Amino acid sequence: MPFSKLSPNDYFSIDRFSRENAVLFKENWIFTGLVFPLKGRKHYGLSLGNIEILLQLDGYGKPRAFLNVCSHRQAQLCEPGLHEGPIRCPYHSWVYDQRGVPTGIPSKKCFPEVVANPENYQLTEFHCETVGQFIFVRISSTGPDLRTYLGNEYSFLERISHGMQGLLDEFIGDVDANWKILIENSLEGYHVPSVHSRTFGSVAGMSDEALAPEFYLDDPLHTYLEHAADNEWLKRFSRTEQKIGKWPHRFEYYTHHFIFPNLTVTSFMGYSYHIQYFNPLSPLKTRVHSRTVGVDISDSTIFGKKLIDQIHSDSNKFTRKVFNEDAEICQKVQMGVNNAIRSAILGVEIEDRISHFQSAYMRKI
Ligand code: FES
Ligand SMILES: [Fe+2]
């Protein structure tokens, strides 16, 4: 029976939090968003650890990441979230092009040097790489490329991106708990019967204990699981499925992928994906960003379309309920951890993904 590698202090100390921002969220590739919502001259503000950044697509459709600070007198350029049009500073209205170069400057003649060499005044840019629809940013100037960093998750993200389109749901929720408490909560299903008994009780399609989830822990950083769909349920579902149609990457299980340090991607059968990341705001507060993304479904009947819409809308409600239940319990965990005087206990197998996360964390911090 292993004990937690993290001490209670690691879940609330300000020093630990500063170290995470200085190392973990700078040196690793951090998920920042999806490509398709940025199409058509938009920009997107978000925080990455304690750094405010913004994303936009350049003239070739390649995502680029910049510090959210104006080159002129350093106003923040945009609020978090998606914005239409080019980046325009709210202070003196400098406008930046798709490469982050200031090209629209009011009272030009007062800034001869900038007008002559605008490239020299480009917004501070960070490493930004994409796999399929998934955009990752690395603040540190050195480190492995994205493919190396992601290992087998690279091909997973590439595969599931085929046909990905349309946000079915998106919400942001703040939880009064350390981000690692939320990650650890997402890495085990042990709490499901007690925390989600009412919500999960009504979910069809998952097999019972006999086909318990299979864990994949080979990568030093990332882990995933696959939990087979119930056979009888699948047989019944296949009749309706013919009406729903075909989608690009279909599988017969629930899968939960954790991409170190703070991204989870889950799906049941591949007809939609739930993408969630956990952004630490302070040692005791985490912003959870949750998106459900649909995929292209072909050959569907009118009835099938209605059916899949219904499945999506049920699952959006379900996701929010589960989120609230998890948020509530994680806040209780934080209160307990604040008072704890020894390390936590981790179950064999059932909590192996947490042990794995903690090993990765200790190596990287
Ligand atoms: S600070 Fe941005 S235009 Fe002046
Ligand atoms: Fe949960």
Structure notes:
- With 365 residues, this protein is of the alpha+beta class.
- The mean pLDDT is 95.
- Helices cover 32% and strands 28% of the residues.
- It has helices spanning 14-27, 112-116, 146-150, 152-161, 179-186, 192-195, 197-201, 231-244, 302-339, 352-364; strands at 30-34, 42-48, 51-57, 63-67, 81-84, 87-88, 95-96, 102-104, 125-131, 134-138, 164-175, 214-216, 223-228, 253-259, 263-268, 272-282, 285-295.
- It has a 7-stranded antiparallel beta sheet.
- The two termini are 24 Å apart.
- The protein folds into 2 domains: 36-131, 3-layer Sandwich (Rieske Iron-sulfur Protein), CATH 2.102.10; 163-364, Naphthalene 1,2-dioxygenase Alpha Subunit, Chain A, domain 1.
- It is globular, with a radius of gyration of 22 Å.
- It is built from 10 helices and 17 strands.
How far apart the termini lie comes to: 24 Å
Strand order of the largest sheet: 1-10-9-4-3-2-5
Q: State the helical fraction.
A: 25-40%
Biggest sheet descriptor: 7 strands, antiparallel
Count helical runs.
Answer: 10
What string, H for helix and E for strand, traces the elements in order? HEEEEEEEEHEEHHEHHHEEHEEEEHH
Q: Mean pLDDT, nearest integer?
A: 95
Tell me the name of the CATH class of the largest domain. Answer: Alpha Beta
Rg, nearest Å? 22 Å
